[in-house]
Design brief:
- The chain is an alpha+beta fold.
- The chain has helices spanning 2-19, 65-73, 78-96, 126-132, 148-163, 168-171, 173-179, and strands spanning 23-32, 35-41, 46-53, 56-57, 101-108, 114-120, 137-138.
- Helix 2 (65-73) crosses helix 3 and helix 4 (126-132) runs parallel beside helix 5 (148-163).
- The longest helix has 19 residues, at 78-96.
Amino acid sequence: MKKILVILCILLWIVSYCWAGKLKCMDIHIVDGDTVKVMVSNGTITQQVKVRLAGIDTPEKYYTAKLYKDAKRCHIPPKQMHELGLLATCELHELLYGHDVYLDRLDIGKYRRVIGILYVKNGTNINYEMVKSGYACVYRYKLPNLTDDQWKVLQSCQEYARLNKKGLWDVDYDAMSCLCGYSK
């Protein structure tokens, strides 16, 4: 009986979570430049979820296979790629620190992470800001749950950051050109 009750509670949370609009995030832990762990509540159940920021990609903070692959593709040492990842992570922290943060859940990704857009209370789209400030690239493939307008804004933010050498574009233009698909 106890197992059935637990299963029903989880199903109730999932159904209400799927229909919810923007969810207030609590206890935010920044994993890296494009991933956070947050506590969200649907009013009944509070749960920790791992969120991948929709439509963006940042250099890796951890020495993963992807970091080594990106470093090799971009002809830079893994340590340099790691340092770019640390800078991207710091930028996300700066954008979120001290703000009320909200999650607009778009999908569940292949690694069972929530794919979403983070906003701060004044309505600022953090996904856009990471790209516009030059600390993230637009993800190589358009996600089906991003609208055409959202996709175009992300691309415009990236072009703005590239042309104005913002953030990581100023630190290592060649590496960002490679990561964002402009060269190499």
